[in-house]
Design brief:
single chain, 221 residues, alpha+beta, TolA/TonB C-terminal domain, 2 domains, three-stranded antiparallel sheet, 26% strand
Length: 221
């Protein structure tokens, strides 16, 4: 599958917002959005992490940042995460590479700019392995595994990404604990590894060995 990052449009939108802020604070001809950058090459698209490509995870990371008097990015932070720490970290690294023109009015005003990085795989969605009904061992701690649920971890469940081996068993499981106790995250992994997965024989198309979902907290019904 061809994999690429689609973030150009949202980067341009943020630069356009910067241009509007500059226009509101100064008189004279409007600057083109890219002219706010020191050079266009100073704000290239962030590198999609190799591990994220391997697990074929997608999401949208919304960040916020300020611009210093020297044109460097200041105080970058995640305003709304994608659910995947590896993508959010890459978004922060991406915006930190940007260098803007020194002395922008927005730097003096302390303007905070929002920016979204859209992490999306190009091409037709692959055929993922599906949970085999009833395959997960009953648990007094976990109610079920909900496949393809990308919501961040919380009080009701823990988000996991993983690969499926030739026998349909989860392997190389990575947790997105998001503050949940390490012991609970480890137990969620152990529970998931009792489950088995298989492809729907009725579905054609390119298959992938990647999967994700949430282990739901609560006793099994």
């Amino acid at each position: 599958m061809n994999k690429k990052l689609l973030a150009v449009a949202v980067v341009a939108a943020a630069l356009a917002a910067l241009n509007l802020a500059s226009r509101a604070a100064q008189s004279g001809p409007a600057r083109a959005p890219l002219q706010a950058l020191l050079t266009p090459a100073s704000c290239m698209q962030p590198q999609w992490p190799a591990e994220a490509r391997r697990y074929e995870i997608e999401g949208v990371t919304t960040i916020r940042f300020e611009i210093g008097a020297d044109g460097a990015v200041r105080n970058p932070a995640v305003a709304r995460g994608s659910g995947w720490q590896i993508l959010d970290d890459a978004a922060i690294r991406g915006i930190q590479q940007c260098r803007f023109q020194p002395g922008l009015p927005a730097a003096r005003d302390g303007t905070v700019f929002p920016l979204q990085y859209v992490w999306k795989l190009d091409g037709v969605a692959p055929v993922r392995p599906l949970l085999v009904a009833g395959s997960c061992q009953p648990s007094g701690r976990f109610a079920a595994f909900r496949e393809a649920d990308p919501r961040p971890s919380g009080k009701d469940g823990i988000l996991l990404r993983f690969l499926i081996d030739a026998h349909g068993a989860p392997t190389r499981v990575v947790t997105e604990a998001d503050g949940q106790p390490r012991e609970l995250a480890a137990q969620a992994v152990a529970y998931l590894q009792t489950c088995r997965f298989a492809y729907d024989p009725a579905r054609g198309g390119e298959r992938t060995d990647t999967a994700f979902g949430r282990v739901l907290l609560g006793a099994a019904p």
